[in-house]
Design brief:
By secondary structure, this protein is mainly alpha-helical. It folds into 2 domains: about 100 residues, no CATH class; about 150 residues, no CATH class. The longest helix has 27 residues. It is rod-shaped. It starts with a helix and ends in an 11-residue tail after the last helix.
Length: about 260
Amino acid sequence: MRTLNRELGEMGSETEWETDTIGGRLGWAIKGQPPVGKRRGIGLLISRLEERKAPGANYPSISGYLQDQVDPPLAFITAAAGALGVREAWLAFGEGAPTEQEEAARREHQDEDDASSAYSRILSTLPDLARLENLDPSVCQAFVMYVVRLEETIQALGGNLPDEELEDLAIAAWGSMTAPVSRWQRRTKQPIEPRAFADYAMAMLTALSLSLRLAAPGLRSAEDYETWDALSGGRRKVSDARAHTMESKGGNTDPGLDA
């Protein structure tokens, strides 16, 4: 058994372990442990597992796990993940990134990619919304955020919404949100002033966002909803500046709703 431990300690790098099996991930994590005094490798893991009173805290068992001869019990995986500083889901199933910090970064990057894709898809579907981007981009951002949260809420509440229906959901949400303005325009035969419409849209989106929070209170953290405050708090300055620039150039700032 000392030979096994010595081989683990003398390997050139962590990446020599294939992480597509539990044994490979366990070996990768053991190799990545910084030594504590003279303790290292399997010996260090065993001492940490013994402190946790975990099963399989011995050389024969760990040798079998490393060679994928036998699957470790859940109690061992839980204890080993804590001892090695890796995520239990990664160690057991290879899901996500090894550590919590790496997983948070991975999810943030994925969220950014998803948000960017959703933004492009929705704006290409709604020309009226796209025309608002130059006047007040915060309205566009808030609307896209609302549609994405609406999709997540529907799914969290048991609804089945395929990814390709995001555009249809955006069209329905935009129609519902702008219906009062459209009716007003038809009755008065007057176009709505663009900045007034932007104010109206942000107020509606803030209210709709809060309704989603009530519908599925555990879906998002409080910090996530603070984004609405950031968008609405800084939007008027952007709106005024962009509208002034466009008007001075003789540009059309009408959002295009039944004009």
